[in-house]
Amino acid sequence: MDKFSAHVNSIICLHHTPIQHSIQGLLRIQNIFLSKGRLAKKTSVSEHSGVLFETLGGHALNWLNFAIFLPILYAVFIPFFYKKIPRIHTGWFVFPIPLVLFIYLATFIPGVANDHVFTQTVYWIPSIGINFVTYLDGLSLILALLITGVGALVILYSVYYLSMKRESLHHFYIYLLLFMGAMLGVVLSDNLMVLYLFWEMTSVSSFLLIAFWYQRDKSRYGAQKSLLITVFGGIAMLAGFIMLYAMTGTWSLRDIIGQAGELSDATLFIPAMILILLGAFTKSAQFPFHIWLPDAMEAPTPVSAYLHSATMVKAGIYLVARFTPLFGGDATWFWVVSTVGLITLFWGSFTAVRQTDLKALLAYSTISQLGMIMSMLGIGSAALYFDGGSDSFKYTSLAVLAALFHLVNHSTFKGALFMVVGIVDHETGTRDIRRLGGLMTIMPITFTFAAIGSFAMAGLPPFNGFLSKEMFFSSVLRAAELGIFNMETFGLLFPIIAWLASVLTFVYCMILVFRTFTGKYKPEKLEKNAHEAPLGMLIPPGILVSFVIVIFFFPQTLADYILNPAVQAVLPLPIETNAEYYTNITAWHGWHAPELWMTVAVVVLGSVLFLYLRKWQGVYALFPREWSFNSAYNAMLVGSEKGSQRLTGSYMTGYLGHYLAYIFVFIILSVAATIFATNGFVIDTSNDASVNLYEMILIGIIAVAAVAIIFAKSRITAIILNGVLGYMVAIFFVIFRAPDLALTQLVIETVSAALFLLCFYFLPEWKEEKISRKMKSFKLALSIGVGTLITLITLSIQGNRLFDSISVYFEDAYELAGGKNIVNAILADFRAFDTMLEILVLCIAGLGVYTLIKLTSTEGGDKRESE
Amino acid sequence: METLMALLTGLLFAVGTYMVISRNFIRIILGTAIYSHGAHLLLITMGGLKGGAAPLLGQGNDLYVDALPQALILTAIVINFGVTAFFLVLAYRSNKELGTDDLYHLRGNKDE
């Protein structure tokens, strides 16, 4: 017992010592509570890591790492609940997890609002600097609260949405919990490698969730597509992370951002930026990587609501926001992020209008809204370029605030809309707009939610989308006036594209509400008799839409507690300048504000376009399906498959001769190139032994016999010629004073010749090879090449003797081994191990020959062989 | 002598290569046999062909030829014989089972 407590004490002691190195296998936890106090704010960004370290006793109760692992660990118990307690819907057992995590994370709000950050370290691979380091600041907190909050609502919703009898719920909730833990890991990790780990975990769990109904072809197609695209981006991002590591020598995000100013001239700076952006764009479904999102709609609706609107697609947004302090302020970053965002915004809203499936419409609207957030982050990154206090700074930093504000808003209304569509699907059996209509009176509550969500998305008051859209307009309008990054040239396009996209957004929002809920009720086209959803299903969207309204009326509370600390994380600037942008989020900009008139124009033109939709829908025929990005993706997939098949088929012919030709050509080219590159070829005949006539004749015989084998008309000639070769070699051994070799060679040549003859008796007659003259000359060239190469190498070695032989040692054979025959002494004494294995080779060959001859595969023999 | 032997082994390797790239099983085995002759001659040549007595002690001689390459070649000859024997029986057996010794026909099944 004493020993045990001593051990515990030692662990506790370790907690309090600053640890540099770690002993493997011992899990240690280090909690740090950092105060980014007002004093520290005066220091510049590069001294970021030098801020006050205060380890407060009370506040050290910090279980951030555990919060990440709780859902993942809890997933282990899901099958138990599913199998042992089948009467209760498994979702009820899952529901407390995100709720508890939400409450736990909410306790950090006051700390974060006071500019504190929290971090905790659990050592994993300290020797290469990879540890589970969590880092909670305003930006992480927003996403963590969304993940757990929307997560809890989605699980509640799924309890009513998924049938207990028909669905394999344990799979569903395991995947969902894995996803939740991974997503928390992404937003809370400070270590880039760990961030990447969780990033790929979200891809994989999303893949599993999309293919939840794996019996359907479309689900599998969608899952595969999303996995391919997001993992492609993930790998690119990993490469970017490694480049960052190469530049900075640390995996820690905070430390890397701390070095921000010093990195911008590094050669790897731009490649790392582009690769990381690839990761962010694929995950957040930005143009042209947006194509996986609509296909991911084959997932159950709770999954679509959770992953593909509120959380996973925001991972890319998070990444861009997170890296803004590092890359922002650079023209490349500004242009890439804001233009890709704007293109996505426009293309998403444009394509959403043509959709007939409600979920596809929502998918494209998600793409469009993500593009909007992305473009605002791009514009906001320019703020790092200005000194605080200037007007440009004020408006560009406003863009960041708008982006984060819209991030929250979008999660609320899009989550609610997906749930509403799920309810419609659940209660009518279809999501096709053409078959729906007139559900307003039948499903009044659902209709209310849909209307609130859609109007918020369209940017109408009194909903939160209005506020963020107004801020969006202000920031694009001011961006057009920026005097940097050549904004003079294309700057005007920013507000125009943004405004057009808003008009289209308004149109599809109206389609969503009015085509589904007004018009004529068509019961004959529906699979079920429509009726209002059960209460439990209505609660989660109800909570979300109430947020939509509450945020409109009290935006400042949200801004003070959560958004401003997050802006502080994205634009880490001294506190005095920050006071400048602590502007109030207001619904009313006054009659003179252009934003107001832009919104009015959006509503007017949007309504006109919606009413005359049929008239102008022909525009979409200009973009036929064959030219879509989907068909490009499919063509790429099929093309790469066919291409690689063709490539492999072109050289993997199945003919031994071809493969040997590749090998020989490669050997000739590589060795010859090496010889000539190193000037290794030497001819030195000074050490040659003398030649007498007798030897000349022998060499002549061998040469003639060898060449004659090629031209042998019958196989018996060939065998005899081969025998001649063998015996001549034996005679050479005699001349070269190798009696043992000569003896062995004679015997073995005789036995081999006998074997050849024996075998030939059973083989078909030797035929003339019918090959083309071209092929024959190629063979000849190849053979001459190989022969020349061997000669060249031999001569070069001959001319490059480096040291004398060690055989003098073996000449003491009699003293050392008691034998007078040196060769035999070597074989049986000095190097007897070789001989033993050579005997083994003979044994194996003998056994092989025996089995080949004895085991016949007649009808019954097949069976014996397989036994 | 060494230069001549280098040319000779080059020739043997050329012939071996020509034989090995063919569609007839037996030609290939003969090719490997020629390769092995070439390799053995190459080994002994590399050991040096300068005169000297056979590596047998007690013959009243001071200078011996290098014994180490001879031991290596002896090992190689035996291993080569084992492989050739197995190879020949394989040819016999595959011809018996599949009815051909033409490598253009021995390309596996379509569904492989």
From TrEMBL, chain A:
Subcellular location: Cell membrane; Membrane
Pfam families recorded: MbhD (PF13244), MbhE (PF20501), Proton_antipo_M (PF00361), Proton_antipo_N (PF00662)
Principal cellular location given in the protein's record: membrane
A biological process term (GO) from this entry: proton transmembrane transport
Molecular function, one GO term: antiporter activity
Membrane topology, from the record: Multi-pass membrane protein
Keywords, ordered alphabetically: Antiport, Cell membrane, Hydrogen ion transport, Ion transport, Membrane, Sodium, Sodium transport, Transmembrane, Transmembrane helix, Transport
Membrane-crossing residue ranges in chain numbering: 63-81, 93-113, 133-160, 172-188, 194-214, 226-246, 266-282, 303-321, 333-353, 360-386, 398-424, 436-460, 492-514, 535-554, 596-613, 659-681, 693-712, 719-736, 742-763, 778-797, 835-853
NCBIfam families, sorted: 2a6301s01, PRK12645.1
Family affiliation: Belongs to the CPA3 antiporters (TC 2.A.63) subunit A family.
Span of domain MrpA C-terminal/MbhE: 779-854
Domain NADH:quinone oxidoreductase/Mrp antiporter transmembrane: start-end pairs: 189-482
Full protein name: Na+/H+ antiporter subunit A
GO cellular component terms, semicolon-separated: plasma membrane
Domain (NADH-Ubiquinone oxidoreductase (complex I) chain 5 N-terminal): residue spans on this chain: 124-173
Start and end residues of each MrpA C-terminal/MbhD domain: 701-765
Automatic annotation (TrEMBL), chain B:
InterPro entries according to UniProt: CPA3_antiporter_subunitC, NUOK/Mnh_C1-like
Its membrane topology: Multi-pass membrane protein
Entry superkingdom: Bacteria
Range of residues in the leader sequence: none
Transmembrane segments: 6-26, 38-58, 70-92
Record keywords, A-Z: Cell membrane, Membrane, Transmembrane, Transmembrane helix
GO CC list: plasma membrane
Location of this chain's protein in the cell: Cell membrane
Similarity annotation: Belongs to the CPA3 antiporters (TC 2.A.63) subunit C family.
Name of the protein this chain belongs to: Na(+)/H(+) antiporter subunit C
